[in-house]
Amino acid sequence: MEERRRIAATYEFNSKKFINSFIGVAKTVLTKPKDFYQNMPTTGGFSPPVSFLAVCLGVSGILAAIITGGNPIVFLKFLIVGLVFSFIGAGILHFIAQKLFFGHGEYEGTYRVVAYAGAVDLLIWIPFVGVLAALYGLYLQVVGLEEVHEITIGQALITVLITLAIYLILFILLGGCLFSMR
Known about the structure:
By secondary structure, the protein is mainly α. It has a domain at 53-173. 74% of the residues lie in helices and 0% in strands. The radius of gyration is 16 Å and the shape is globular. It starts with a helix and ends in a 9-residue tail after the last helix.
């Protein structure tokens, strides 16, 4: 029974075992993404993945605010915009995987992929490293979508790239206003 609890904490964030669970999930998703997404529960509520992502975004937001002169708006942008776009991004990914490739996953499973891939947000605030971390985050989403939706790696890659293109188009159309608020 104890072995089962230890394994479950590695694939699902448990706020009651905050530090160990957070480190275990972040380490597993970052270093063994295939294993993580094969064993990640695809149901169980939104609280664990949202909490995990909020911690990643919060830590990154605090560190980004510090290196940009202590501006608390930077922290709020990271946290609020990151959480909002995680739900939107999961919706777009889910729609494309289901409609274009007949994926079998549910929205909650797709959201979990996005939220746990947010472990890369712990590094996103570091100049240059952040770009590499963001690219790795896209890779994590590809691996996760392949598992959750039971689609090929190529289909998962196309799903992520289409979603990225939609984000870029929206960013251009909005003139970056969401990210340039002062």
